[in-house]
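Q: I'm writing a short explainer about Phosphoesterase for a general audience and would like to include a description of its predicted shape. Could you first generate the structure from this sequence?
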Amino acid sequence: MKRKVKVTLGIKMKVACALSLLLLSIAFFYWQNNSIVITSYTYKSVLLPESFDGLKIVQVSDLHNKSFGKHQEKLLLKIMDLEPDVIFVTGDLIDSNRINVDTAMEFINQAVNIADVYYVTGNHEKWSGIYLQLKTELYKAGVIILDNEQVLFERDGESIVIAGIMDPDFTMVENIWKEQLKVFSDNRENKFYILLSHRPEYFDTYVEDGFDLVFSGHAHGGQFRFPFPNGLYAPGQGFFPKLTAGIHKSDNTTLIISRGLGNSKIPLRLFNRPELIQVTMQYEK
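A: Of course. Here's the predicted structure. Afterward I'll give you a sentence or two in plain language.
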């Protein structure tokens, strides 16, 4: 009888441990995929006009229709606390596997009240088949859409250039996409040049064309960052990618890569929490 009781208690303990482990795993993965981390950088350059010293940029990338709280309030509060002067959205605002323009615009319609929003497309805008609809809504909201365009950004009598290139999937021909980048670089007129481009894997091209500062996303931080320092896999780079997050420098070009906020075909992140990036610009004498 005693043996039967011991066996029963042993089974119950194992079941309790298994359930506890399951609940802890669920809580951990929820936290990993829903708790936003802020990464801050200071970018210094002698080429930056002095009036842009202290400019605060927040980068939002790869939202993929993800919601952070009711009406995106958790995401928006994080951005508000950073007090940005401008917000850069670097593609994949929507997800082609679960298209929801309303969710994307719920974020955008409130973000434009925090700061001017500059936007470039990602591959999912192309794959969705409804980019024209999204673009119309973005225009209505007052977003500055950079579809192979550049604009002057003026501050206290000085100016820099902010350019944006559409994702290469919109052209379907890589050489045409690279030619558009060259058009930008050939017409820079000695201005400090910021480029918004969804794809980090073209870093060598950005360096070749002489852009000063580039903001990208797309790689989702390599999705699973442990035990792989740069992640396990990134679209456009394959397994064991090199350009998935952080700040990278070559010659006179600096590339900042956001790990992004949402997920797409791979629904989970591991040691790779959703990320907002804040960059403070600093004029270096």
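A: For your explainer, you could say: The chain has a mean pLDDT of 92.
Q: Perfect, that's easy to follow.
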